[in-house]
Amino acid sequence: MLVVDDQFLIRAGLVGLLEAAPGFEVVGEAGDGAQAVRLAAETRPDVILMDIRMPGVNGIEATERILAEADERVLAEAGERPPRVLVLTTFDLDEYVYGALRAGAAGFLLKDSGPERLLAAVAVVDGGDALFAPSVTRRLVEAFARQQAPDPAGAASPDLGVLTSREREVLTLTARGLSNVEIADRLYISEATVKTHLNRTMSKLGLGSRAQAVVLAYETGLVTPGG
Fold this sequence. Notes:
The protein has helices spanning about 10-20, 35-45, 60-75, 95-105, 115-125, 135-145, 165-175, 180-185, 190-205, 210-220, and strands spanning about 1-5, 30, 45-50, 85-90, 105-110. With about 230 residues, it is of the alpha/beta class. Pfam families: GerE, Response_reg.
């Protein structure tokens, strides 16, 4: 674990909680994004607890840098796994959370969550799943999709034409807030098949998490807020 927060007392509390729990090891702590990027490269943690609002390099930029460097290592070193970034935020609809999800964060956790919730969240993202329920993802993305104006100067969105019809169906239902089990029931396929389609979709579109897939579905117009 790498713990990142600019407030010393919060950071110390998180470190103390994690070190006291069986199965967790804190390999570093950082008070700002720049330090987090450096420590992530040095310690290669499995999971990073990332604050967003920090002086200098914020949590979004730090997440982007950390995951970009990790992707380069994955290509160069067999067996390397990118860290899972779990964003810590004060507000559940903080506009910065949306940016963090776009940057590749695995999910978010409110700072007022209890110890059991924190430890469970770390275990969930370390296992490769999104932290939050699909319905929470949907509410978050819909809230900010309404506020995001298209950026004509921005990078082009991935081409959804590379997806099969079934992959598009799975992506659409994922973005609408359905769980893998619910998608399987809707499409009359197994849950394992749903996971396979979603993993292939993420691979084709260059996405690192389920949350990114949901964001992309809204940004490309595959799913519209309230639709």
